[in-house]
Specification:
Strand order of the largest sheet: 2-1-6-5-4-3
CATH class: Alpha Beta
Number of domains: 1
Order of helices and strands: HHEEHHEEEE
Oligomer: single chain
CATH architecture: Roll
Strand content: 35-45%
Radius of gyration: 18 Å
Helix content: 25-40%
């Protein structure tokens, strides 16, 4: 009986730790979306690994410096307003110091109430150094919207 109880406690402890780690990596992906929405280059600098690489929504492969440079104050002034970026539907795989997080990201472009949604699937590869998770790469893929009935 004690062995069974020990196994149950071990499983519950592992699930709680896994759940906590999963929430942590999804939170980092949300921080990335928030930094992109606000054009926060300092946050991007903290969140991205030194060797970060991105596959953009148009299929370009961009290095870290180019990605951070895209979020400059000048670019913000020229870009359409992004009223919100919402991530949901997370799928998380953690293996030691690496995590893969796949989410649906809905970006609302334009002023609140008159915005249009751009929906993408985002795959993020994160690496943990010590207790901190940082993003090593992202891949953005557009999600086709269902055709409107005629």
């Amino acid at each position: 009986m004690n062995t069974l109880l020990s196994v149950i406690v071990a499983i519950a402890t592992a699930q709680a730790a896994s759940s906590s780690a999963e929430r942590a990596v999804v939170a980092v992906v949300q921080q990335l979306a928030d930094a992109q929405r606000t054009f926060d280059q300092a946050a991007l600098d903290r969140l991205l690994t030194a060797d970060y690489v991105e596959v953009s929504p148009v299929g370009d492969v961009d290095e870290r410096a180019k990605v951070i440079g895209f979020y400059s104050a000048d670019a913000k002034a020229k870009s359409p307003e992004v009223s919100s970026i919402v991530i949901d539907q997370p799928t998380v795989r953690i293996d030691g110091t690496h995590a893969i997080v796949i989410v649906r990201q809905t970006t609302n472009v334009g002023p609140a109430g008159a915005s249009r949604a751009v929906v993408m699937r985002v795959t993020a590869h994160l690496r943990r150094t010590g207790t901190e998770w940082r993003i090593a790469s992202t891949h953005y893929t557009g999600i086709r919207q269902a055709a409107k009935p005629q």
